[in-house]
Amino acid sequence: MGHLSDVLFLDDDDDLRATFADLVKTIYARECHGIGSYRELLALGEQALHCGVAILDINLGPEAPSGIDSYGWLRKHGFHGRIVFLTGHAATHPLVVEAKRLGDAEVVGKPVSLDRLTSMLEDQPSYEEHPPQ
Amino acid sequence: MMPVPAHELQQSQYRWRGALVACALNAIGMPLDILVGRDVPGMPKWPSLMSGVVGLLLAGALLVRRRHPTYRLCATVFLLNNAVILVALWITSGYYAAAQGKWIPFQANKLGVLAVAVLAPGLATGLVTIAGFVGMAFLRYLVLSTELRQRLPIGEPWAIVIYAIFAVAMLGYRVHSVALARRMFRMRTESIATQRMARTFLALRDFTNTPLQTIELAVKIVRARCPSLTPLVDRIDRSIDRLYRLNHAFSAYESRIEWTEEDTSPDTSALVDR
Fold this sequence. Notes:
The complex is a heterodimer of chains A (133) and B (274). Chain A has six helices and five strands. Chain A has 133 residues and is of the alpha/beta class. Chain A has one domain (7-122): Rossmann fold, CATH 3.40.50.2300. Chain A starts with 6 loop residues before the first strand and ends in an 11-residue tail after the last helix. Chain B folds into two domains: 6-186, no CATH class; 197-273. Chain B has helices spanning 6-36, 46-64, 71-98, 107-119, 123-143, 146-151, 159-225, 230-250, 268-273. In chain B, α1 runs antiparallel to α2 and α7 (159-225) packs antiparallel against α8. Chain B is built from nine helices and no strands. The A-B interface holds A 11, 13, 15-16, 19-20, 22-23, 26-27, 59, 61-64, 66, 88-95, 109-114 and B 202, 205-207, 209-214, 216-218, 220-221, 224-225, 240, 244, 247, 251, 254-255, 257, 259, 263-267, 270.
């Protein structure tokens, strides 16, 4: 079972995923569930819903469900934690524009600094305030 | 060999088509004059046939050079085609004028100037050819006997001048419209090229963002785990900063892109590997 302090990190780049998980563990002493696709998110299921913050890459590869699809799944299944979209694309890109329109998710451009990352991981809603349904 | 720009190629093809249609009209239209003049006493068939055959040969020459049609080729063919028509009309009009019954003079010349307005490969070629049709009509009129001149309808041969004025106006308008369309086509082509370049630059930037992020995060881990490596890690950080500046420079191209449906799930690796 996941914990509120856990971080969900969705990115199709293996190296970034592994490095991010390593960093979260090393610097913030927190558990990171690194997944590479929407399918892996579905497989993670409940564990994903109990994370405190989800960082989602928007583009998960050609013809693959995007980070926005993952966002939809998380919200639909009662994820009340903070969701941050991490993207390497232009601010005017259609997927980025769509992500910004969602309202309750932030969009942050890659590469993100350590300070920004710290603020993303620290300022998150509490589990008690927003329990998963 | 330098590739011909798309707008130049389009212009050449447009001229080529005009010259080809003019030759085809000669090849088909002039032999029909034999039918029209079949009851005219002594009317020779060879001028119209000769004109038609020359039109056919010139059309053949254009077809042979269809892949590389130059302005000079199109203009030369167009002028030759009309010159041979004028020779044929010069001969046949003498027989029409001398025939019994009412002849409406220089109809082919009037039709010719209007066709030139639509088909001429350029302004100069068009003006010369219109002048040729008008000049031939006046010259033919002048060499007719007084008796034959008096048999012509009122207003002839001046009616062709009105046709010529209309033809010149039409030709000028057409040449202007073609130039405008060409300019718009060139601008569109340049815009597409700029978009393609901007797309490539952004793809490069997007492609480097994830590895850059990985390096930056890895450096933070190294810094936390091995403080003794700080001087080395500092150098890596400075190098990353320089790459960020490059990254930022590419951002200027964001506003130049008109995103399409194809961009919703881009394969940046494929774009970079191309």
